[in-house]
């Protein structure tokens, strides 16, 4: 042949395949890591892929073969050479030429500035809306140190609350895979973005390991995320007309749903009936999903006023996050109402008797009784002092997304020296455990400690993912304005509920909110608590069933369930019940050492 010899036509075919495979591998590597040097190697990698493929061809099936035959006529040995070439050039020479070109391409790529490189690879968006959407979508591609993003401070706060609620919904409703992913772009975080527009709101969330979910689990995640997004969008003032939710995995959106923002009654009914799909008008998947999300990223008209949050822990403003100055969380009217409620509550609390418990709703009152008893039980009294120490009083105040716990301690004349300092960590640990009785979990919580009817110290904490982090400790009555957001007027958002009957669990662990040694207690009624002598300890009933909590196995996997009962006489296995009602039996040997110790403590109780 004039063009190739032997099967030399395979040389360009191998070059094309090698360039395609290695180029796509580096492109996927950049999508997973966003490392600049990987992006610089995308085009040069195609050249080096061609070099490698041609070289492999030349060393295998394209190798020149010399065979020796015996000529029957002359009885002489005849050597026949079989080679392969393309345009009269052998594969190894082609590999060398391709290598030179790949070297030039590599040098040129690394000479470009970062801006030139990004502009070369950034797809030209068809519209400003598409550009804004791709920029927002890239923020939740992988973990960059933040969990939530938004176009305004209020949007960021909504995205953070949305992320936490979706994560809890996934833990409660979808069983985690047995095999842990080796590579996770989100590092297990539910990366979220919220876009607030004058009359609409859009949420996007990156769900870890979504590709491993069953179709039913994916549908559950979408509908649960829709319900959570509707709940949070309804907090905006003025309330948007429409909301959209996009649920994606590592690269693609599984589904996008949209519909009108439900009113308060519809939201409450949907939570009661667990009809999370209520209100969804349209569902989109594939390329349609991205196209409909882009519509929510149209540029705002000049002077457009965006909805915002009024008061509470998630208050924010209209301006973009990088431009808005710090503002107060409540307006003058809300501040005045919060001050009035706070003053009323403080006066009421000062008159409470030792051992008395109150709350702004009946379940909160029950939780306050259990909390006060748990702190009293966990306080490191000397045995001689325990019979003389009166019980503590407590008040639990729940509002839309925050909780306030007030704890009254005896005065200096009754408390042993250094008693207050020793009580602080116990009081906070019990407060963290008290939050486990609330659903949904509060976004912020304040613990206010009283002694002799005076505020001694306040602890403000915020929930970060599944843990509490300390925001501020306030001595005495300094900075009272920082306490007021926890007592501001309620909106029409569904308020935090309390599990009833309360099954409070005490703990002694290094980490607040984690439990290794537990005793379950049922609080007495307020009347019984008042009538009971302060010195008598509370009789603890059977420790089972426990509250719903995190259980870890020996590999670190987590399940949320309550331990209902022991299933063997040796108490080495138990029946667990998940929040969704599913019941299963697990040998305790499969659990972590910490949980096994906790179960041994339970089994040892009468």
From TrEMBL:
<feature type="transmembrane region" description="Helical">
    <location>
        <begin position="86"/>
        <end position="107"/>
    </location>
</feature>
<keyword id="KW-0472">Membrane</keyword>
<feature type="transmembrane region" description="Helical">
    <location>
        <begin position="37"/>
        <end position="57"/>
    </location>
</feature>
<keyword id="KW-1133">Transmembrane helix</keyword>
<keyword id="KW-0812">Transmembrane</keyword>
<feature type="compositionally biased region" description="Low complexity">
    <location>
        <begin position="522"/>
        <end position="537"/>
    </location>
</feature>
<feature type="region of interest" description="Disordered">
    <location>
        <begin position="507"/>
        <end position="547"/>
    </location>
</feature>
<protein>
    <recommendedName>
        <fullName>SLA1 homology domain-containing protein</fullName>
    </recommendedName>
</protein>
């Amino acid at each position: 042949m004039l063009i190739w010899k032997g099967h030399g036509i395979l040389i360009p075919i191998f070059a094309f395949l090698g360039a395609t495979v290695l180029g796509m591998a580096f492109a996927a590597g950049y999508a997973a890591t966003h490392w600049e040097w990987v992006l610089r190697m995308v085009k040069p990698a195609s050249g080096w892929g061609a070099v490698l493929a041609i070289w492999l061809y030349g060393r295998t099936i394209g190798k020149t073969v010399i065979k020796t035959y015996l000529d029957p006529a002359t009885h002489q040995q005849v050597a026949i050479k079989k080679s392969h070439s393309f345009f009269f050039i052998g594969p190894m020479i082609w590999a060398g030429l391709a290598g030179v070109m790949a070297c030039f391409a590599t040098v040129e790529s690394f000479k470009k500035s970062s801006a030139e490189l990004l502009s070369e690879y950034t797809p030209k968006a068809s519209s400003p809306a598409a550009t804004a959407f791709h920029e927002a979508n890239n923020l939740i591609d992988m973990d960059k140190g933040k969990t939530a993003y938004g176009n305004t401070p209020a949007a960021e706060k909504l995205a953070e609350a949305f992320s936490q609620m979706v994560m809890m919904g996934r833990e409660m409703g979808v069983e985690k895979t047995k095999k842990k992913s080796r590579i996770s772009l989100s590092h297990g975080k539910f990366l979220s973005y919220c876009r607030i527009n004058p009359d609409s709101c859009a949420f996007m969330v990156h769900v870890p390991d979504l590709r491993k979910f069953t179709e039913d689990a994916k549908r559950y995640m979408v509908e649960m995320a829709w319900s959570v997004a509707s709940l949070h969008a309804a907090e905006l003032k003025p309330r948007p007309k429409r909301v959209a939710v996009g649920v994606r995995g590592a690269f693609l959106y599984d589904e996008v749903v949209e519909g009108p923002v439900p009113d308060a009654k519809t939201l409450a009914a949907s939570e009661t009936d667990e009809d999370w799909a209520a209100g969804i008008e349209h569902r989109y998947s594939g390329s349609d999903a991205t196209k409909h999300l882009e519509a929510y990223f149209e540029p705002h008209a000049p002077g457009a006023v965006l909805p915002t949050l009024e008061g509470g822990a998630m208050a924010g403003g209209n301006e973009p996050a990088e431009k808005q100055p710090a503002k107060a969380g409540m307006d003058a009217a809300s501040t005045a109402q919060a001050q009035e409620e706070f003053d009323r509550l403080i006066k009421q609390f000062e008159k409470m008797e030792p051992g008395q418990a109150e709350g702004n709703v009946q379940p909160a009152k029950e939780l306050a009784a259990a909390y006060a008893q748990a702190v009293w039980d966990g306080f490191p009294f000397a045995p001689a002092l325990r019979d003389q120490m009166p019980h503590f009083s407590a008040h639990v105040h729940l509002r839309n997304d925050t909780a306030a716990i007030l704890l009254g301690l005896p005065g200096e004349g009754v408390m042993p020296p250094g008693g207050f300092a020793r009580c602080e960590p116990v009081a906070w640990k019990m407060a963290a455990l008290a939050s486990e009785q609330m659903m949904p979990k509060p976004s912020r919580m304040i613990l206010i400690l009283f002694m002799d009817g005076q505020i001694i110290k306040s602890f403000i904490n915020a929930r970060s993912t599944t843990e509490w982090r300390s925001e501020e400790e306030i001595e005495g009555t300094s900075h009272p304005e920082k306490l007021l957001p926890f007592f501001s007027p309620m909106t029409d958002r569904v308020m935090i509920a309390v599990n009833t009957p309360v099954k409070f669990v005490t703990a002694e662990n290094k980490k607040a909110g984690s439990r290794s040694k537990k005793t379950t207690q049922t609080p007495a009624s307020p009347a019984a608590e008042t009538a009971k002598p302060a010195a008598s300890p509370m009789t603890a009933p059977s420790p089972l069933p426990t509250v719903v909590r995190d259980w870890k196995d020996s590999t670190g996997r987590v399940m949320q369930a309550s331990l209902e009962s022991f299933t063997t006489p040796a108490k080495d296995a138990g029946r667990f019940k998940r929040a969704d009602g599913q019941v299963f039996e697990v040998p305790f040997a499969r659990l972590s050492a910490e949980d096994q110790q906790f179960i041994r403590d339970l089994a040892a109780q009468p």
